[in-house]
Amino acid sequence: MASVLTDKHPCFSSEAQHQYARMHLPVAPQCNISCNYCSRKYDCVNESRPGVTSEVLSPAEAYAKFEKVKAAIPNLSVVGIAGPGDALADWNKTRETIELIKNTDPDVLFCLSTNGLLLPEYAPEIVELGVRHVTVTVNCTEPVIGAQIYGAVNYQGTRYTGAEGAEILLNNQQAGIRYLADHGVIVKVNIVMITMVNDRHIPTVVKKVKQLGASLTNIMPFLPAQGSVFSGLPQTNMHDVTAMRVACNVELKQMTHCRQCRADAIGLLSQDRNNEFRSCAATTLVEATESKPLPFANYYKVAVTSQAGKLVDLHFGQAEKFDIYQVNNNRYELVETRCLEKYCSGNEECDSEDKRREAIMTALSDCDAVLTMRIGYQAQKRLLKHGIMSVEYCYTVESGLYYAVEQLELKAAAV
Ligand SMILES: C[S@@+](CC[C@H](N)C(=O)[O-])C[C@H]1O[C@@H](n2cnc3c(N)ncnc32)[C@H](O)[C@@H]1O
Ligand code: SF4
């Protein structure tokens, strides 16, 4: 039977994702390990992926932001701490933030995300604080595989590398998951699927964490992050991720609706509103939208970022081609493919970069929406100035097109 705790948590329950909003409070910037896929140094405003945030807050600032968001989003059910580093590496700030909110709003569900290194130390306090959802990232169970994924593990004042460091991390993760599950905490395990590194080993991880008491796993595609050791590896194909989720679902419940959110995400999973609540945000995305006439004969034109045309599996900033579809709520047709330069070249400051980005906007300006796996705030804002809505989605192109139509119609109804 589904628990009331998971029923209201949009990340732990696919039913709750459409009804309940969550907010991530970025109060924990530090980390105690180095994952080779992680980069928190590259502060690109166009990025929308884990570890990215536009601000780091003190516990008091986080509390003030919570109050503001709660007033604006009454269906806010969950407050999570997902970095931008590790919730337990900055435990004092994490705990203080939770305590401040809990004292005034005892109904909020709290969750936190961790690599698990410090779970043996803090799991009893987590339980005592009343945190009932914890996400632990477990990418392998074998130290030799861990040695390829983790550059270093800093534990109790010593820096460990290779299989030695990985072994400490993996042992602590496993002990921590068992403790939490035995004490009534719902544990979700994130697994970053990295082709040729840990992909074949994932079913073993799922089996192990199930034995330890985890309730579900979330197999996520590896996203190459500029500035990370793995920046040159290819992004994991969504087709492979989906196949792995299906195979592992036989063993344990799988999360399939993860959006790999930013550390400051706010709102429903499908509609990140973090930009409305940034301390420096002068206008909202809605305010920035220019009106655009309704499309001819109720057909919308949607530009899709897809590697092979079947799945929405490409970041907007990485796309070099856009498939242009005409679509309404029961038909769609691919009308052309436009080859353009990449939006994100990594050369943020340069003047010609701005011109190039405007040229991309002009090339897409006849479209009503861009359907993409992920898109950053500045790129969304620029698209909206051209009257183009951005829709983040992570499954087939076909279902994504209908989802985009739904979003366009909702927007039209709200005007
Ligand atoms: C930024 S972390 C924050 C929580 C914590 N430090 C951890 O690693 O679990 C949130 C999630 O994003 C994942 N992640 C970070 N960088 C990633 C990347 N480049 N590709 C895919 N997943 C990534 C992490 O493994 C983790 O599951
Ligand atoms: S544990 Fe989390 S924050 Fe730390 S390096 Fe890994 S992904 Fe980044």
Automatic annotation (TrEMBL):
Residues 17-264 form the Radical SAM core domain. SUPFAM superfamilies: Nitrogenase accessory factor-like (SSF53146), Radical SAM enzymes (SSF102114). The keyword Transferase does not apply. It comes from the Bacteria. Its cofactor is [4Fe-4S] cluster. The keyword RNA-binding does not apply. Belongs to the radical SAM superfamily. NifB family. This is Nitrogenase FeMo-cofactor synthesis FeS core scaffold and assembly protein NifB. It comes from Sporomusa ovata.
